[in-house]
Amino acid sequence: APSVPSLWGVPLKYISLVTLAVQNSALTIIMHYSRVSTPPSQVYSAATAVLMNEILKGVISLIFAFSRIDASSPLSIPVPFNPEPPKPRFLRSCTPSLLLVRVKKLCAELFSPDCWKLSIPAILYVIQNNLQYVAASNLEAATFQVSYQMKILTTAAFSVMMLRKRLLSTQWIALLFLAIGVGIVQIQTGACKDDASAVDAHSMNATKGFLAVVAACFTSGLAGVYFEMVLKNSQGDLWVRNVQLSLFSLLPCIAPIIVSSSGSGSNFGSVSALFHNFGPWAWATVGVQVLGGLVTAMVIKYSDNILKGFATSLSIVLSFLASVALFDFHITFTFMLGSAIVLNATWLYNQQPRRVGLGVSRDTKT
Ligand code: C5P
C-alpha cells in the first residue's frame, strides 16, 4: 500500500474525510443562505460563482501540480557542471533554466494526448454545480442535503454499467431504502411548501428544486464514475487531472454567462455586470465550493468511496442541526423518519467485506 502522508501526526486520509463532512454541510447552509436571504432582484449570478469556482480551483491545483513536479523530479533534469559549492536545494530548483524545464514538463503533462478525456466530466460537473444553485434556492438546506444522497444510487448504477462493478444483495436493498427515505423526505417538503415560502424572502419551488437535485444526482454519478475511470486507466497525476478538469470547464462555464448577458442586453465585457450583487456570501459560497473540489480530490487519492459515503452521511446530520439552529427549520416526524432511513441505507450500503475476490470493490485508491 502507498505510504499515506500525515499532518501533525494525523493521516491526511482522516483529515480530508472530516474536512469533507464539514465542507458538505457548510456548503449546503451557506449556498442556501446566500440565495434566499436577499430579495430576488439582489441575487448574485450562479453562473459567475461556478466560473470563479473553476478558475480558483484550477489555479490552486496548478500550483500543487507544479510543486509536485518540482519536488519529485529535480534530479532527473540534467544540471550543468558548476564548480562552485552547491546551493541549497530550494535555490537550485529556482534557477530560470530549471524553472523553464519544469514548466515545459508540466505543459507536456497538461496537454497530453489523453487530456480530452477530462472534457466529459468537466462539462457534467459544470452542469451539476449550476443545478446545485437551483436546488439550494428552492429547497430547505437539510431537505436538499438528504435528497442529494440519491447520488449514491446513480453512482452505483453507473459503476455497474461503466466499471462493471458488482453489488452485494444488501447493497441493492440499501439502494431501495435510500429511494424510499428520499421519497418520505420529499413528501414532507411538499406538505411544508407554504411554510417555507413564508419564512424565506423567495417563494421556493419544491418541485423545481427536487428536479434539479435529481438531475444533479445523475450528473454526479456519471461524472464521478467517468473521472474514476480516467484516473484508474491512466498514469496522470491527480493535480494535473484537476487542472485539466478546470480548463475544460471554462468554456461551458462562460457560455451561459454570454447567453444570459446577450438575452438581458447587459454588457458581457463589463466585469461589474458579472459581479453584480456578488457580495461576501457569494464569495464564501465559492470559497467553500473550491475547498470541496480540492478535498474531494484528496479523498479520492488518500481514501476511497466507502469512507467518502460516511463523510457525506455525517454531513447530513451536521446540516440538519445547523438548519434547525439557523433557519428555524421545523423537525417533523416524517423528516426524522426519512433522514433516519437515508442514514441507515448509507450505512448498510457501505457494509461490505473488505476481502478481495468477491468482485465488489468501490475503492478508488490511486
Ligand atoms: O456531489 P459530488 O461528490 O459529485 O460533488 C463533487 C464536486 O467536487 C463537484 O462540485 C465537482 O466540481 C468537484 N470536483 C472537483 N474535482 C474533482 C472531482 C470533483 O472539483 N477531481
From TrEMBL:
An example molecular function term from Gene Ontology annotations: pyrimidine nucleotide-sugar transmembrane transporter activity
GO CC annotations, alphabetized: Golgi membrane
Keywords attached to this entry: Membrane, Transmembrane, Transmembrane helix
Keyword Transmembrane helix appears in the UniProt entry: yes
Topology in the lipid bilayer: Multi-pass membrane protein
Sequence intervals crossing the membrane: 172-189, 209-231, 243-261, 281-300, 307-325
Domain of life: Eukaryota
Keyword Zinc: no
Location(s), subcellular: Membrane
Protein name: Nucleotide-sugar transporter
Taxonomy of the source species: Eukaryota, Fungi, Dikarya, Basidiomycota, Agaricomycotina
